[in-house]
Design brief:
Elements lengths: L3 E10 L2 E10 L8 E8 L4 E3 L2 E4 L3 E4 L18 E3 L12 H10 L4 H6 L7 H10 L3 H6 L3 H4 L2 H5 L2 H12 L10 H10 L3 H8 L9 H10 L4 H15 L6 H4 L4 H25 L2 H7 L8 E3 L2 E4 L4 H11 L8 H6 L3 E8 L2 E9 L4 E5 L12 H14 L1
Antiparallel strand pairs: 1-2, 2-3, 3-4, 4-7, 5-6, 8-9, 9-10, 10-11, 11-12
Length: about 400
Amino acid sequence: MYQCNYTDKICIVNDKLCRVITAQAKRRGCEHKILDVYREFETGEAECRHLYYSMYSGYRVCFPADKDIYGNICELDSFGNCKPLKCFPYRYLIEEEIELITSLYPDFKYTLNKWQAMTNNVFIALNIWKEHKEIEFLLAAGWEYIALNKNFWRYSEKKRKEIVAFLRTADERLKKYSLADVLVIMNNNISFEEFKAYIDCYYHSRLSYKAFIYLQKKGLLTYSGVSLYSDYKILLRHSNHKGDYWLFPKDLQKKHDELREEVAKIEELKEAEKLKKKQKDYIKAIKDWKKSGKLIDGFSIYVPDDVLDIQFQAKYLHQCLISCDYISKVIKKDCVLVFIRKGEKPVATVELLKGNKIGQFYGNELDRSNCLPSKKVREVFNKWLEVAA
């Protein structure tokens, strides 16, 4: 397979305008190896052949009679559908190509006469022009990035007129920027210099302009400050709070911590609702254990009959009873959970497997290096098991 030089041309294929990419082998002595390898039609459809992608060297071409990556002799293939590729070189249209395009679309010549089209974007402009002849004026005025942005044409006519009205008096330097950038200036009513300070900020891709100004005023335009604000925005999305009061709090750290607690409670309530739906099936699964609870040597040992009790035990002892869905394991009768408490205080949880074999048996798992139950707790459980089993 060969690394290649690529050239393109606009022609007509199957009665449609088509951009054809031709590959020529770079290797000395192999310059005679030339093949059309990619075609992109005015409709947006694309097809290719004999192209192989390498993460190290990009696209390579296996010419007919060469060996492919599997060692097989490559025969001349027909073109097959592929996704549009943006990796090939492009150039300005030549006069012959302009004449070819306007032979099919005569009125498009007015647009091409006012705009220097390139081989990689002329079909984009053509397809927009078919529905929006007014693209001609944007292209003629030099607002190419706006004109060729399909999102612009998805806006309502009213919104498009507002943007065009803004462009008529906008700074000429903006012509090098995207629609999203133009909207930052337009929507925030700022100067080009203010906009430039924003996009030159290392963190601007992670922040809206208003967030950028907010953090700048707070002295939080740092990695830790931006990260804190990003976390805060995620918490906001899980709450019902809206508006600038919440988006730009007076004390970001304080409001972040308050919101974290609030969201935790919301999530806990949601989890409780999910658990309640399993309650009926859970009760059926542990019906034979309902009278097994005992008080032994000051410890209460029992099989819980309420899924919310399991949630409480998991939270208190930092155990994965909920996150690893032990309730479903009990419902499937893969195991039974046995709780050990001292008064109201959870002490340990036992996973009792089939045949009364002990699976996991842990106390507080906050410190995983020190979470095994004491000798006394194990003795108490063994006493309970002898009676309950």
